[in-house]
Structures are given as C-alpha cells and as structure tokens.
Amino acid sequence: MAEENDENEDAADGENAEGEGKSKPDIKKLALFIGLPAVILILALVAGGLFLFGGGGDDDEALDGEGEAEMAEIRPDLHSFEIEQPLVVQISGSGNTRPILTLKVSFEFTDPAVELALQAGMQRILDQYQGFLRELTPDDIAGSAGQHRLRLELLRRTNLAIAPAQVDRVLLTEILITQT
Question: Exposed/middle/buried for 126, CB within 10 Å: 0-12, 13-18, 19+?
C-alpha cells in the first residue's frame, strides 16, 4: 500500500508541475496581448496628432508672397454679382405665426458673360426664389446643413433661370428670420 501512496504522490507532483507550467504566461502570448495594443495605441495617437496639428510646414510656405502669386495664377478670376435689395418673404411657420425671412444673395462665376445673363434674367430668378422660399420653415434653414441645402437649391434655380449660362456658387451674405 505504501508503494501505491508513493506512486499517487509522484503522479500528483507531476500533475502539479504540469499545472504550474500551464499557469505561467507564455512570453509570446504576453507580447501579443500587451505589446500589440500598446503599439496600436501609440500609432493612433501619432496619427491623431498629425491630423489635428497639420503635421508639416508646407502650408506656411504657401502663404508667402511667392506662394500667393502661384495660387493666383492657378485659380481663375472669379467675378461676383449681388442682388441689390434683400429678399423679404413670409415663410411657413407653426400655428398662426408666419416668420419673415430676409435674405441677401450674391453669385460667383468665372465667365464674365454670366453677369449679363444675370441682369437680363433677374425677374425669372426672383420668381423662382419667391415660390421656393415661401414653402420653407425655420427648421429647413436651421444649422449649417440647412443653409447648405438652401444654397444648393438656389444655385439650381438660378442656373435654370439663366440657362445656358451657369453660376458657380450662390453665397448667402445675410440670413435673418423674424417672428411676427
């Protein structure tokens, strides 16, 4: 019986030795679970820093006198035309209120002949704008996304009114909504 106890103790010691070997972390696994996330975190921080702070001095050189001259040569001449009087329109509101929208618009274009088309088609442009603007609500114009959609729609309506001439941009120089 003593021999059986010795064999059982030897077997138990062998199992403990094997169990202890399994409980020790393997160096490869340790490097994988700790080192790899640390490297990824460092790379993400560096990329975020470069994104936020520019990461280079090329922008400063472009602002020098020589850089401005080069940019003026690359960019075509832009012409602008502003509607002299602001557009004043009652827009849709909630309940009995009818807010008033006051809007000043200007146009940018590269072809100087577009200015003549704008002057000749101003009545059609204003007619297009009036119908569209009366259906707007203050929520339609709220925020930068609403103003962007408004610019795009005014650009589309302007280009339809003066076709085949084309305006490049519609600029909203003043937007005011007053409650009555």
Answer: middle
Q: Supply the Cα-derived Rg of the chain in whole angstroms.
A: 35
Chain segment 58-85, per-residue pLDDT in tens:
554 444 555 555 555 555 688 889 988 8
* 133 plus 112 within the same structural domain: yes
Q: What is the pLDDT of residue 62?
A: 47
Token pair 């941009």 is found at 169
Amino acid at 124: R
φ/ψ of 177, rounded to 5, equals -115, 120
Q: Give first-to-last CA distance, the chain, whole Å.
A: 105
**Do 144 and 128 share a domain, yes or no?**
yes
Residue 32 or 123, more confident: 123
CB 97 within 8 A of CB 177: no
| Amino acid 88: pLDDT | 92
Could you tell me if 125 and 53 lie in one domain? Answer: no
Residue 92's nearest CA partner among 137, 53, 153 is 137
CATH of the domain at 92: 3.30.479
